[in-house]
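FAQ

Q: What does a record look like?
A: Structure on top, sequence underneath. For example:
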């Protein structure tokens, strides 16, 4: 029975008992594992209005650029106009783009009404630093400051 188990690759010895882990080339064949490569990313910035300075109570939405399963996330700017998203992305290529959408939802507060603005924020595999695990590819941070223009008066 022992020989049969040995032929099938079973052993009484644990080569990883010292805390190590298998590597893909340890046995000359890939080691199957469960999981997916992922990255941590941060998108942050400040929303201001033309001639109005930082804007508070602006809805800022982070959403996928491509049609995929990533869900939207929404925050409101504080009194300094700042916003921040900290997210994870599961993608083996490490290349993806998100949209940051800033929208004035409080009408004429903050010195007037401002038009919605959509900004594309691309991430490339080379942006991510500090990866070191089998699946963890690292983290990246992008600062995206947004200036909203006054809304056009449609009553003319």
């Amino acid at each position: 029975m022992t020989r049969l188990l040995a032929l099938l690759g079973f052993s009484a010895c644990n080569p990883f008992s010292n805390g190590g882990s298998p590597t893909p080339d340890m046995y000359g064949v890939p080691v199957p594992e469960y999981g997916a490569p992922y990255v941590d990313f941060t998108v942050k910035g400040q929303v201001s209005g033309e001639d109005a300075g930082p804007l508070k109570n602006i809805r800022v939405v982070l959403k996928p650029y491509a049609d995929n399963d990533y869900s939207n996330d929404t925050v409101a700017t504080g009194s300094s106009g700042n916003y921040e998203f900290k997210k994870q992305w599961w993608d083996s290529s490490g290349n993806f783009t998100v949209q940051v959408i800033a929208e004035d939802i409080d009408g004429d507060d903050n010195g007037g009404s401002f038009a919605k603005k959509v900004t594309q924020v691309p991430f490339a595999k080379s942006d991510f630093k500090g990866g070191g695990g089998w699946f963890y590819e690292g983290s990246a941070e992008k600062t995206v400051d947004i200036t909203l223009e006054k809304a056009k008066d449609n009553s003319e």
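Q: Is there anything notable about this one?
A: The CA atoms of residues 6 and 12 lie 9 Å apart.
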